[in-house]
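This protein record is not my work; I was only asked to verify it. The record follows directly below this note.
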Amino acid sequence: MRDAEEAAAWYEAVFGMTRWMDTPFTLSGTQLAAGQKGDKTRLVIMKCRHETIGMIGLLQWLAPERSDAPPQRPREIAFGAPIFVVAADDAHATAERARRLGSTIHCEPRQWTVTGADGAERDMIGCSFWDPDGYFFEVNQLVRIRER
């Protein structure tokens, strides 16, 4: 995370998330597989409407600063990188908010259909883009469920 404040503002504006926690944090050197014991960080935890599964932690290194961040404007997903799948009430508006904040849009909102695990077809509007730190998001709006 290059800048926790910038990232938090992006998640607030694009997905309507709220700050659940924002605190300085000193690494213990044990649980997190990054950094060293004593590193100073800032931890911001953002939450969606569903606060158990809809949370994301944003960790910024304060001291020492880290220079191994991923490229800021990727054009493809690296092998093994996560893809975050998000449900939206309005995929068009979500993509527009991301665009206004400088996100690289990979796929403009488009209609598509998927067959769910229950066998029902779901008509969707979907789009995809990267956040300011290079993480990829697939955003889907459910339009209609067609039962089998």
